[in-house]
Design brief:
Keywords: Cell membrane, Glycoprotein, Membrane, Sugar transport, Transmembrane, Transmembrane helix, Transport. The chain is mostly helical. The protein contains 23 helices and no strands. The protein folds into 2 domains: 1-165, Growth Hormone, Chain: A (Up-down Bundle), CATH 1.20.1250; 220-431, Growth Hormone, Chain: A (Up-down Bundle), CATH 1.20.1250.20. Helices cover 77% and strands 0% of the residues.
């Protein structure tokens, strides 16, 4: 919720921030664009910083470490007497968002049972969308300062509740603290659960990874066996952002204005926000029933159809054709696009990042994937206006649609199905590791198609 609220803040806040009757300092168009743009840049830095943090401090402590800076960042914005204070606050919250968006999927991937990992792994995205919706609705009644103080209140329950949960058993095993790992697993699975088989599986997977590890984390990343899951994760992040989702969300109001839509553009924005929120909950219900790949297929096809439709609509409008009869089309296409994105390409790249990256390099590889995602976010949002200026808004939509077609082929050929499989099973299959006959001769190899 805190991450979603932070991401959505500029959309309602900038209007009142630029109003000199409300704000004591001047916010120009240029500094206003940086209030929005500095966050993905700081998120990129957070992604880079988060990798070493989850390895050395642990998954839980890293997530916990973001709570206080989140509160400070919002208080800085709320009490701002100069635009520089707002920018520092946004940069600090962006840094925390980058760290959280990396550490949350890793924490969930390592603690949740395979049968429900999809459903529970999508909940952060669903709550993120609640945060976005809360920000939009509160932004209707509060100015930028009041909205920031509301933002400062959100991390308080998060800070208190984080103390109640354990560190991940896998991190304890990687630090040779098996007793702590057993206690954490017992807490997670329930007092009466027999956790020994799962603990043995985690220890074995860690020993395998240690045997194949090199002395350098960077060399580990470039190891052929590790490179494949990392490239799949990067590919999913690339196609997530190059579907144009952030351009669509950040510029919703302007797009509806230029479409000459017959429906009020602010109402359209709220409709898109509500749909985004509902669709993610639908995805949480379906993901452990249909699997990851089916949802990615549905998601991609929906985005291709709607982006091509939007492109054609704007092409006709720009050519002077009468489109007043189909003034409802942009909103309908937007709704289907957002539903499609939220069903698959929105949450699944983050979920799969926590699933397919091998345990030994999970921190550094997740760091690379998160930093790459934020870089793509920054590039798409910052260049969208330039792209539409050079090839027209119809060309921009067609371009994003074409990238989605390539994304569909990528999913078909390269992305594995991870539904219902333990992290150890996924890792063995991804790395094509052949077991040595010595200590594990009595264990039958697990065979499944991915």
């Amino acid at each position: 919720m805190v991450v979603g609220f932070s991401s959505a803040y500029t959309s309602p806040a900038l209007v009142s921030m630029k109003d000199r009757n409300i704000t004591s300092f001047e916010v120009t168009d240029q500094s206003g664009s940086w209030v929005g743009g500095i966050m993905p840049l700081a998120g990129l830095a957070g992604g880079i910083l988060g990798g070493p943090m989850i390895e050395y401090l642990g998954r839980k402590n890293t997530i916990l470490a973001t709570a206080t800076p989140f509160i400070i960042s919002w208080l800085l914005i709320g009490c701002a007497t100069h635009v520089a204070m707002v920018l520092v606050g946004r940069a600090l919250s962006g840094l925390c968002v980058g760290i959280a968006s990396l550490s949350l999927p890793v924490y969930l991937g390592e603690t949740v049972q395979p049968e429900v990992r999809g459903t529970l792994g999508l909940l952060p995205t669903a709550f993120g969308n609640i945060g976005i919706l809360l920000c939009f609705v509160a932004g209707k009644y509060l100015d930028w300062s009041g909205l920031a103080f509301l933002g400062a209140a959100l991390p308080i329950p998060f800070l208190l509740l984080m103390f109640l949960i354990p560190e991940t058993p896998r991190w304890y095993v990687s630090r040779n603290r098996e007793d702590r790992a057993r206690k954490a697993l017992q807490w997670l699975r329930g007092r009466k659960a027999d956790v020994e088989p799962e603990l043995k599986g985690i220890s074995k997977s860690h020993q395998d990874a240690e045997r194949h590890a090199s002395s350098s984390a960077m060399l580990d990343l470039l190891n052929k066996a590790n490179l494949k899951p990392l490239l799949i994760s990067l590919g999913l992040m690339f196609f997530q952002q190059l579907s144009g989702i952030n351009a669509v969300i950040f510029y919703t109001v302007q797009i509806f204005q230029s479409a000459g839509s017959t429906i009020d553009e602010k109402l359209c924005t709220i409709i898109v926000g509500v749909v985004n929120f509902i669709a993610t909950f639908i995805a949480t219900v379906l993901i452990d029933r249909l699997g990851r790949k089916i949802l990615l297929y549905i998601s991609d096809v929906a985005m291709i159809i709607t982006l091509m439709t939007l492109g054609t609509f704007f092409y006709m409008k720009n050519n002077g054709d009468d489109v007043s009869e189909i003034g409802w089309l942009p909103l309908a296409a937007f709704v289907v696009f957002v539903v499609g994105f939220s069903l698959g390409f929105g949450p699944i790249p983050w979920l799969m990042m926590g699933e397919i990256l091998p345990g030994k390099i999970r921190g550094s590889a997740a760091s690379v994937a998160t930093a790459f995602n934020w870089s793509c976010t920054f590039v798409v949002t910052k260049t969208f206006a330039d792209i539409t200026a050079s090839i027209g808004n119809h060309g921009a939509f067609w371009m994003f649609g074409s990238i989605c077609i390539v994304g569909l082929l990528f999913v078909i050929v390269y992305v594995p199905e991870t539904q219902g499989k333990s992290l150890e099973d996924i890792e063995r299959k991804m790395m094509g590791r052949v077991r040595r006959m010595s200590s594990v001769a009595n264990i039958k190899p697990l065979s499944f198609n991915m």
